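User: two proteins, same treatment. go.

Assistant:
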Amino acid sequence: MLIADDLDKLLNILPDFICQPLKNHPNRKLLLEVVIDLGRKPEARFPKGPEYLSNRTISWQDLDCCIKRVGNFSGDNRSGIEKTLHRISSIKNRNGNIIGLTCRVGRAVFGTISIIRDLLDNNQSLLLLGKPGVGKTTAIREIARVLADEMEKRVVIIDTSNEIAGDGDIPHPAIGRARRMQVSRPELQHRVMIEAVENHMPEVIIIDEIGTELEALAARTIAERGVQLVGTAHGNYLASLIKNPILSDLIGGIQYVTLGDDEAKRRGSQKTIMERKAVPAFQMAIEIHERNNWIVHEKLDEAVDQLLQGMDIIVQRRKLTSQGKVYIRCEYLKSNDFSSNINQNFNIKQKYIKHNNIARTLNHSSMFLDKREKFMSAIQSNNNFSIDTLNTKSYYNKRSMFLYSYCINLQQIEAVINTLQLPIVLTKDVLQSDVILALRSNVKQNTKLRQIAKSRQMTIYTIHDTTVPHITRALRQILNIYKVSDLNGY
């Protein structure tokens, strides 16, 4: 992995009592940013924490010295150094005078997207999520270079703050053959996005920090014109984007729907639910939690639907080691009011896939067996990969019972299963279930459910009340009658 940072050019704008300690610092290659505030000690921030660079406090003369070397600040209080990727942001007082500077180090990291290089071949729009400073801009800069140079696509970058391609009229070499359109004022970013499509015939548009409703609408317009999008947005998890009323349009938008009585009983949910309103502007989403630890949602529309329905989903966690190996582990994501907590106690079986120097680890979840098989078959269709076969259906049939519930709250059943660690997996497809658990007062009215159970020779277990004791007693009775190892649900 090659890194180009032009750190000396950033240090040259700083006063000598700040510059010299950084030049001799053993961890200068890991420097994230330098903070200069009036009346305070200069501070350098590293991944492991901040450090003071001098006991001398910052004066007006020190700030003026830095500002004169940097140049003018734009409407978003940002500036840069020509032909570099560094960003200098200012803090102003009520009178408009600059009283603080944040000098962020910009680095071009070549090879950082090897962790998702295979996803770029799908020609699908990609949305990167993550907190500030986690490396989203570095990633899309490298994505732009790969798409333009290696895949020879017409790439246009909408560079609002000159952070992707650097300051000045000549873009930084890190973006390769990609073209860059600058934005005069941040509030005009959505107009430049549309202008890029109308005037320059791009195949791919790169957008950094989509943050307003107009920009989200422009992204949807671009996607509807058949242009591939690569963008970033602030948000740690996909669930946080769903709850964001401004940016939810990126993933299709959210609307409230009122169900009929029969449908609400069948789902075991309330009559008013949330559903996705339209097709997402992006087909894939990536959560960047750490620089080398990413979570991938390959089917964004399905992931959003499952989160809105309170279903558990499978995600890919990809990690890049220092040796250049990429590990992929599929994890079981518990959906609880859009909370993104990975259930580490779920029983999984690991598989290893090797391709040259890339070792990938796959974990299989029985609840989403069909999705896992699709995922494996998609990889197997690529001749570059070699996968050991595994009879997943027989493996999971020996370990778990698939239960379909009717008119019973799924959260209550799931709480009982998790508390007692029962070998039962909930399914919302009655045709994939082994047994049916229903509320007695409602199952008599459902002729179709009884016909399905009769044709598949499944037993319908009923309970009088949807309380936890009744559910617990029914589940234990089912497990006592059926031996899980003898089930043949699939």
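Protein 2:
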Amino acid sequence: MDTSPLTAISPVDGRYAGRASRLRPVFSEFGLIRYRVAVEARWLLALADEPGIVELDPVTGKPLELLKSLAAGLTLEQAVRVKSIEGKTNHDVKAVEYFLKEQLAPLDADGRLREFFHFACTSEDINNLAYALMLRDARNEVLLPEQNGLTTRLAHLAEEYAALPMLSRTHGQAASPTTLGKEFANFAWRLRRLGASFAQVEILGKLNGAVGNYNAHLAAYPDVDWPAVSRLFVESLGLASNPYTTQIEPHDWIAEYCHALERFNTALLDLCRDLWGYVSLGYFKQKLVAGEVGSSTMPHKVNPIDFENAEGNLGIANALLGHFAAKLPVSRWQRDLTDSTVLRNIGVALGHSLIAYSSVMKGLERLEADPARLEQDLEANWEVLGEAIQTAMRRHGLENPYEQLKALTRGRRVTPEELRAFIGGLGLPGEVQHRLLELTPGTYTGLAARLARDL
């Protein structure tokens, strides 16, 4: 069977392959091989530049060009060759080492240089750095730009609808009005902050041998300051060095990364549910797409499918992210292999996140507020002004203001005339009475418009 998206098991590589395609160069098997090759090649160059490794001189000429080329990017054909070698070794990291030796052989007559590939390394020295680079690049080059795009779009909607009044609903019941723009601003602020938290997660790596003690390093070169060499190398990759590990980097930072991404996704899921509800209430119309069908039997329907799709994908992403955060920092003694297959699925979680982001953006682009419907709900709920009236009564010392408004409004609809008659009988100062009489549900929005614009 071919590898068409139609034959893929996962929708990330099938139905939604186009939306997740930017993560393929990072989290595919090809991507993992590419990052492993880069780490191995750069480690060899670092060793050659270390004065204490007296058997090696700094790499120059064609060997340097080759290693830089391999570190910069692998071709698909070269990755296929690595997999061919793995078919014999039955070890993926050793296959990378043998591939690199094979590539360098024509330029390394005596074999001295290529025998320093994978020098003093355990497989996890290469793997943890590869995954760290993968997660860094996915975050910086794919996820953060998408997240920033969402928060920017929400900020624009906050500005556009800053002054458009909307009935609030707390516990699903009519509550003090807000503006549509302020509700967008609330989410823009949340997501901006959560995105910044995700961006600030420190990404760590280690290169310290089989159990984290530089045993083999010291046996070969007892006079080299291996912790310093390791730290400088890890930092040269753009990562922070973790000096204390077992065979594996303990993955605490991956848990932090997953939790930070999960929090962003949770806030976005909250937005999806709210917008779904507002579409259901008719506060938004959805722009029609020519040829699109909303139901196989009900031709009138225009469903909020983008927000539903996003909610589903965010749920899958967060379930996986939660598992990664709980599982990856736990390993028996100095190392077990349970993290290996789990790590291979991190791209799936990020893929579902990315699919959700594109769905939310698509859904936002289709939204169009319906001011008439918003006004209809406001005009049907004059009782929400009870808060304003009883608060003014408190200021001016009237007796039992809350209880009076409770008796007038709780659990029932109140007409404008009833409220105005009540206000007129309170004996409030003229200016206060006038202000309350002029108040409507559509004007009782506090600083919502200003807050939305100030975002």
